[in-house]
Amino acid sequence: MARLNLIFICVLLAVPSTAAAAGFVPAAPFATQERPATLLLDASRAADGIMVVREHIPAAAGNFTIVYPEWIPGEHGPTGPLNDLAALRVFANGAALNWRRDSVDLYAFHLNVPAGADAIDVVFDVLMNAPDDDMSTHSIAIVNWNRALLYQAGIDSHHYYVKPSIVLPSGWDYATALRGGARSGDRVDFAVTPLDMLVDSPLDTGRYARKWDLWREGSSFVQLDAFADYPQDLEIPASLLRAYERVPAEAFAMYGSRHFLDYHAMLTLSDAIGFEGIEHHQSSDDRASDDFLTDPDESLAGGDLITHEFSHSWNGKYRRPADLTTPNFHVPQLTDLLWVYEGLNQYLGDLLSFRSGIREPKLFPEYVANVYASMYYETGRATTPLIDLTTGAPHFYLARGVYPAIRRNANDFYSEGELVWLDADTIIRERSHGARSLDTFLHRYTEPGVTGPIVETYTRAQIESLLNGVEPYDWHEFFENYVYRIAPEPPTDELARAGWRIVYDDRPNAFISAEEAGEHGTVGWYGFGADLSGDGVVRDVREESPAWRAGLAPSMKVLAVDGQQFSEDALEYALRRAQHSAAQIALITVQTGWYQTLSLDYHDGLRYPHLERIPGTPDMLAAIAAPQTK
Ligand SMILES: [Zn+2]
Q1: Which of 49, 225, 324, 487 lies in the 20 to 30 Å Cα band around 546?
Q2: What pLDDT, on the 0 to 100 scale, is given for residue 96?
Q3: Do the domain assignments include residue 531?
């Protein structure tokens, strides 16, 4: 998403009408460039979880409807947090107006503007912190403008103008891709901005901040802006900073183009806020744990956070599926092509993390092994094609619950999409004898060289045609097989084509270990078929596996293994011992107050995925992950 300004020069044009928006006739906007809506966001108490919005919205006398943004770009769904909008008050010429929520469209508010008034004043509170959606702490606040504005219903957001201002918590620093910021005390006033660009330009503010220039050329730059709960978490090791400094050059080499004026990778470091990344055209809203910059495991597990979102500036923001491109935040986005938008981007964000050295390039095969195994053992793949997951993405992003492997979820079109695009890359490399690669496609996909943040939409047929121009091949059938039909296995030929094969043994996979390090989990998924947390809670059970046959289920907790209190060590010891014995492993479990002893009939020990070289073949993965710049 994933994740996500604005000189209003060439920028706002060029959003063609789309399938989703077919037939859309925009209302005439009362807020214009000459007479914009004004928005003052009082964030002075953001650390306390509350902000106050004051908007002056041009209007006309009579029936008038204002709406709260519902379909949020980068979140790919109707996720506007309506529950966080509170204490709404509306005035005209100083007198309070009654408002009424629409009985079907809950994001819309109807009112009657009295004769003689040409604007309304709107005041409301933004309540910032909800379960799994913390946006502020003692020392950090993330401002997503879509949470802090109402706008005239029915307008085209590219031609509706707002002049935003913010009052920051006292003495806090800030970063944003919004243009023209002029600070006076704790108040910052920004230039008049089209609504779509405002929503596309979040602002991070915090007590403890560090900013690093990653690249600069004339007035253009790429900057990493980090905000932390604790100042010591901003002490990035020099070697990691050097790797981040290589990201822009590697991205320019990969794409051969640039479609931003400047770019802010905005990063919060907070266990309370958690892990998330939302792309924007000239910035990204990246959120990670306290020790993201200081713990090497975090760079392995989440090392593509910033590179993934940065890559979206080209793939997702500049090039965007036609049916995902909408005129405002009320028109539903169609998400079927997220296998390109997110699937391709998962591959490219990962490549940038390896090519820049955030992750060591030699670990790329180990990474691919983890992704491949996770998708190979996703049991829901036997019934559910990838296209169903992308089409249903607004639902699947929010899907929760046990048996996640049967359900499949939004993560699958990232991971499996990565394998599909790796396959496409290896096909192009093999058929062109190394003369061309997916990078060749990316150069053509993101022509011309340098523009501001404009949008060029695409369809599936256009993607296939572009690929065919790079390397003649039946790309339509290729995507039919792996995206549009049930695919019993993820693309498998790519491993051999790249000179590798998958093996399973008892050596931990470096990426699984890094992912599990935070929660001290024990992965038995590829062995006996259950995924347990570090304290024995069953997170998932694979159908028809030894764990399934033993009767393990996601609602249980394992208390003891062969008589020993559950621990990772106790489980590992029992698994190794069972390799040399016909005896079953005894598991004592508890489920809603009932204790059971289950017998696990499993003798294959620990199993983790790795890739192993096929002797005598060229190593394509090394070429793919190698730095492309010097
Ligand atoms: Zn993404």
Answers
A1: 487
A2: 98
A3: yes
Each residue's pLDDT tens digit, 231-286: 999 999 999 999 999 999 999 999 999 999 999 999 999 999 989 999 999 999 99
Cβ partners under 8 Å of residue 8, min gap 6? 33, 192, 193, 194, 197
In angstroms, what is the span from residue 244 Cα to ligand 1's centroid? 18
Rounded to a whole number of angstroms, the distance between the first and last alpha carbons of the chain is: 30
Q: What is the distance between the alpha carbons of residues 144 and 287, in angstroms, rounded to a whole number?
A: 13
Give the tokens for residue 41: 């966001």
Q: Tens digit of pLDDT for each residue in 335-386?
A: 999 999 999 999 999 999 999 999 999 999 999 999 999 999 999 999 999 9
List residues, by chain if needed, whose CB lies under 5 Å from ion ligand 1.
1-2, 342, 345
In a domain, 489, yes or no: no
| Tally of domains within the chain | 1
Tokens of 568: 């990772």
The C-alpha atoms of residue 154 and residue 110 are separated, in whole angstroms, by 13
For residue 8, pLDDT beyond 70: no
Cα–ligand 1 centroid distance for 311 (angstroms): 9
Residue 341 CA to ligand 1 centre (angstroms)? 7
2 CA distance to ligand 1 middle (Å): 4
412 lies in some domain: no
- Length of the chain equals 630
Identify the CATH number of the domain in which residue 591 sits: 2.30.42.10
From ligand 1's centre to the CA of 497, what distance in Å? Answer: 27
Report CA(350)–ligand 1 centroid distance (Å).
Answer: 11
Q: How far is ligand 1, taken at its centre, from the CA of residue 433, in Å?
A: 31
* Residue numbers of the domain that contains 597: 527-606
Distance from residue 410's CA to the centre of ligand 1 (Å): 11
- 545-598 pLDDT, tens digit per residue, is 999 999 999 989 999 999 999 999 999 999 999 999 999 999 999 999 999 999
CA of 34 to the centre of ligand 1 (A): 35
